[in-house]
Amino acid sequence: MSTRDEPLMQLCAMPLHGVGTVTAIDHSGLCTLRTAQGEQVARQAASCLLAPQAGDRVWFAGDLEQGLYVTAILERGDPASEARVRLPAHGTLEVAEGALTLRADALHLVGRQQLTVQADAAALCVGKLTGVGREATWSFGRIKLIGELIESFAERVIQFSRWSQRTVDGIDQVRASQIDYRADQTMQLQAENLVANATKLVKADGDQIHLG
């Protein structure tokens, strides 16, 4: 290195900071700034979580040798534009103690591949809930459902259980084109009045038939 290059290297290594305006951002997030020192190129600093946009007034710092960084967004170029917080890869938002509250008029959680919610206890209180998906799997030790009206619509319903009990205080009504009830051991029908009607055929078949 010649002695003529030493002042230039020292100049490049000198700290540089100031206010600039973002004029453009490329696909990698590299910002082009208009500053008092001329046009500069800067990267978003790791501590600057608010993603810069074109037109923003920002504070930059660094040097020409190692590069410049946008460390803070001072003023948005368009106050109505979307404020986007960008975390580095595998980022974690953590509160060591206490509670974390997210409050907004509308809150959207989007996981491009997977969304996981894990807690010892969870509570959901909403006025209206709508769910759309291709497949759902639930695994619970105990489920308690309380509702004023429950409606379900399905092309096909399959249920398996070792033991089942249902109590209906009013009318229990089933309407179908065909009904098939089968029991391996005993089937019992008991009522104060039992009525069986058929328009064409009534058939009772067994090794023994007791009436009365």
What does this structure look like?
With 212 residues, this protein is mainly β. It has a domain at 6-75: OB fold (Dihydrolipoamide Acetyltransferase, E2P) (Beta Barrel), CATH 2.40.50.140. Helix content is 4%, strand content 18%. The protein is built from one helix and five strands, in the order αβββββ. It has one helix spanning 6-13; strands at 16-25, 31-35, 38-44, 57-63, 67-75. The protein has a five-stranded mixed barrel with strand order 1-2-3-5-4. It is rod-shaped. The protein starts with 5 loop residues before the first helix and ends in a 137-residue tail after the last strand.
Query: Could you spell the SSE succession in H and E letters?
Result: HEEEEE
Q: Going by CATH, what is the homologous superfamily of the domain at 6-75?
A: Nucleic acid-binding proteins
Radius of gyration: 35 Å
* Share in helix: under 10%
What is the first-to-last residue Cα distance? 118 Å
**Known CATH architecture of the domain at 6-75:** Beta Barrel
Mean pLDDT: 88
What proportion strand?
Answer: 15-25%
Short description:
This protein has 212 residues and is mainly beta. The chain has one helix at 6-13, and strands spanning 16-25, 31-35, 38-44, 57-63, 67-75.
Give the arrangement of secondary structure elements:
Elements (H helix, E strand, L loop, with lengths): L5 H8 L2 E10 L5 E5 L2 E7 L12 E7 L3 E9 L137
Parallel strand pairs: 3-5
Antiparallel strand pairs: 1-2, 1-4, 2-3, 4-5
